[in-house]
Amino acid sequence: MTGPPDFRLEHSELRGDDEFTEFSNADLPYYSDWHGSFEKLAWALDEETLRALAPDVAIVGAPFDEGTSSRPGARFGPRAIRMAPTAWGNVDAWSIQLDVEPYSVLKVVDAGDAPIVPTRFERALRVIHEKVFRVASAGPIPIVLGGDHSITYPSAAAVARHVWPRKVGVVHFDAHADTGADQWGNLHAHGQPMRRLIEEGWVAGRNFIQIGLRGYWPDRETFAWMREQGMRWHTMVEIEERGAEAVIADAIAEALDGPEVVYLSVDIDVVDPGCAPGTGTPEPGGILPREMLRAVRQIVRAVELVGMDVVEVSPPYDQSETTAMLAHRIVMEAISALAAKRVGS
Ligand SMILES: [Mn+2]
User: Fold this and answer.
1) Which of 103, 180, 217, 315 is the most exposed place for a label (fewest CB within 10 A)?
2) Model's pTM, two decimal places?
3) How many Å lie between the centroid of ligand 1 and the Cα of residue 173?
């Protein structure tokens, strides 16, 4: 009698040079792109098309939520944000807030999703990095739709790599610092991206500025690590006491204390869950949508924006598409602010 077979738990992720094109569009999961572009904008799915169209801004989807620690669903974020019922898809769109017609000033395209497939965590982060790097290298400012916050590590690193040797400051809106050492042993889950960006040297700690922190995570030890890195943060309590506009002005100055350019990362959970319920790790007591939109306008007009992401929209937990609409509007305010800056309105 021979014994039972060995339990061969082999690593299932393939390794190869062609990971990016490993799957055809038809192979990608149903929630990946191809349903409709952001704002019905033209697609620019490959580098050749991007270079031919020479856009100012390109939307990129990162449908990935395997970094979540609590409620999943952010893989459906790009699709929901693209399809938010506030989309006009109208070249005449005029911003009442900024007195500008964004699409008559800027060329904006949708570069589609990074070719992510579920169950392959590391590959997902690699193809996000590659996609964002390819888009940025072709010219436009990438605006990435998450996905959970783990996508900011490959995305911000891609933008920092593109602008190198210029230094990037980060303005990061979030209820949580996302600077944890690991999450059940995983270094790249959605509670770790900011720590990896600093540890690996993509962004200097002192130019990593966080806004909206509150609640009960991370712990004291993690905040001590953040202090050692020279990180600066503005809690929700500070916003309550000083008002958002003054706090944002400080954050801009701190991010640009050295660097010339800024990457903006918006975790939708910085907004109060009463106004943005569709997210994985809600934290009561957040900012209002109008403060968020105003902050985006304030920042984008003041800095040279080189990249941006809007993350943690989880449509299965959303109500009446409220959260997807807000995320859509955050992107719209950034595009309109870029346009307003261009024409000086
Ligand atoms: Mn986050």
Assistant:
1) 217
2) 0.96
3) 8
